[in-house]
UniProtKB/TrEMBL annotation, chain A:
This is Heme exporter protein C. Required for the export of heme to the periplasm for the biogenesis of c-type cytochromes. Keywords: Cell inner membrane, Cell membrane, Cytochrome c-type biogenesis, Membrane, Transmembrane, Transmembrane helix, Transport. Its main location: membrane. It is a multi-pass membrane protein. Belongs to the CcmC/CycZ/HelC family. The gene is ccmC. Pfam families: Cytochrom_C_asm. The chain crosses the membrane at residues 21-42, 62-84, 96-116, 128-147, 159-182, 202-224. NCBIfam families: ccmC. Residues 7-186 form the Cytochrome c assembly protein domain. It is found in: Cell inner membrane; Membrane. It comes from Actibacterium mucosum KCTC 23349.
From TrEMBL, chain B:
Required for the export of heme to the periplasm for the biogenesis of c-type cytochromes. It comes from the Bacteria. Keywords: Cell inner membrane, Cell membrane, Cytochrome c-type biogenesis, Membrane, Transmembrane, Transmembrane helix, Transport. GO terms for molecular function: heme transmembrane transporter activity. Signal peptide: none annotated. Belongs to the CcmB/CycW/HelB family. One of its GO terms (biological process) is cytochrome c biosynthetic process. The lineage of its organism: Bacteria, Pseudomonadati, Pseudomonadota, Alphaproteobacteria, Rhodobacterales. The keyword Hydrolase does not apply. The chain crosses the membrane at residues 12-37, 43-64, 96-117, 123-150, 157-178, 190-213. This is Heme exporter protein B. It is a multi-pass membrane protein. It is found in: Cell inner membrane. InterPro entries: Cyt_c_biogenesis_CcmB (IPR003544), Cyt_c_CcmB_bac (IPR026031).
Amino acid sequence: MAMNSIWQYANPKRFMTVSGYALPPLAVASAAFLIAGLYWGFFLTPEDFKQGTSVKIMFVHVPSVIMATGTWFMMLIASLIWYVRRHHVSALAAKAAAPIGMTFTLMGLATGAIWGQPTWGTWWEWDPQLTSFLILFLFYLGYMALWEAIEEPDTAADLTAVLCVVGSIFALLSRYAVLFWSQGIHQAASFSLDKEENVDNAYALPLLICFIGFMLLFITLLLLRTRAEIRLRRVAALEARERMSDA
Amino acid sequence: MIAVLLRDLKLAIRAGGGFGLGLAFFLIVVVLVPLAVGPETATLSLIAPGILWIGALLACLLSLDRIFALDFEDGSLDLMATSPLPLEGVVVMKALAHWITTGLPLTLAAPVLAILLNLPTQAFGWLMISLVLGTPALSMIGAFGAALTVGLKRGGLLLSLLVLPLYVPTLIFGTELIRRGAGDMATTTPLILLAVITLGTLAVLPFAAAAALRINLR
């Protein structure tokens, strides 16, 4: 096997070594980016002429919703890698990512509600974007519940991988079905190639820094949780071996 | 394949509750909602499509865990998996049997219950069409959920958590079809989209469900 291939990190031992070295700098970098981006965003940007100070919740809201969908996408890819190539680290990474993604979804919903109250005059509106996020939240719940429910680890990994693939299709379908079902009041995309609908330049840079911070935070937490899952797996293997030798 | 279908139908009828339970549940939901919402007929006719669909969804959910669980316990599912018949075919037939015992009677009973809910008369046809088109998808998605949870001791609650989010597109297009029918609006778009969801589900999910069954039977 070629040593300079990405698959060599699928070896749990190699993964543990490399991620062990990578974690401290990643944690420091994500903290730095988050502090810098949030400080800049909260205190050094002008107030919006319509929304006032409440516009600044965007610096938490936008990165967390992007990461919420991004995490599901990462879980889909990890599930497919597990399903095709049977790398345990990949399955465990998908499992480890789910609670992080769920938290991002919840943060997106909560910050959206807090921002929506003064701006739209309501905590909650059955708007397509809000609704599809709520549905995404339900998908995260189901995925995590299935992991919890099945005892045999490989069966659990396989079944959750199947659920993740099917769930992705249905999540996408729901996303467009709710567009059909209700007209939205939500703002257009904050980041997009279409310059017209982007946020103003004064906000773009701190927003980008916040986004990088959230991304680094996700990678840090993901590595941390995957390492914990691998260690749990090792403990289970050791316990099983002990029981075998006792018997 | 026909034999699998007939066997499932016979079991459903002889074990009792195959046809009746789901229907009775549907009736109860439809009776309870006006008690909760209040007897104003205008409100009821407005929410009637939603109540009928939610009732159908829940009634369908009620019998899902029986699609595979009994056969899994007594080992006949292993036999079916090792038989020359593809497991995908078994899944389709079992979903069909589930639809005949729940979706079909629900569709036939729906107009009667729609009278109770004061649904506008011009929407009755659309109600039947939307349920005929939509409920097969409910059975098929449900069979997928049942295949995922078949090995679990208490899979019932988990099954509903897994399956209900997958019902969202069907629910949206199904109710939208009736609502537009009731308001004398153009119904082509939701009709086509509902049919797309159902056909796509029937084409793809048997493979996913059979894959899940194979994993559980390992």
